[in-house]
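Dear colleague,

Thank you for sharing your sequence with our group. We've completed the structure prediction you requested, and as agreed, I am returning the results in plain text so they can be pasted directly into your records. Please verify that the sequence below matches your submission; if there's any discrepancy, let me know and we will rerun it promptly.
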Amino acid sequence: MLIDEIKKANIEAMKARDVDARSAYSIVMSRYTELKTNGSGKEVGDQEVVSIILKFEKELLEEGEGYKKAGREAQYSSILRQIEALKPFKPQMMSEEEIRNIISSLEDKSMPSIMKYFKANYNGKCDMSLVNKIARAI
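Please find the predicted structure tokens below.
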């Protein structure tokens, strides 16, 4: 499972004294544990771990922009290193061309239908805001 790989990477980062990577991995593991023990009884798999990583990355990017605007370069570079540490655990995102091809192959090209299809079949493998933008352009 993906979470096991992250745990191993966390141990390696600990040995290497990589504070930024450890911070990123620890937060992902914490959110995984939180999701697993929230009482829903739902199985937490790789798809949920990918969702945690993508959401955390988005939060880091927003935080990094704040540091950049404030001129706090040390914190900004720390955020970038955390994002870099998470890259090996993210799936390959779909390109605009791939998204366009899938949308054009769909029978029902209504916005709700397109979004529902991508959410069900490609969740975590594509940027949903990009899907929305492309679907509106078609």
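Summary note from our side: The chain has two domains: 2-89, 96-137.

Kind regards,
the structure core
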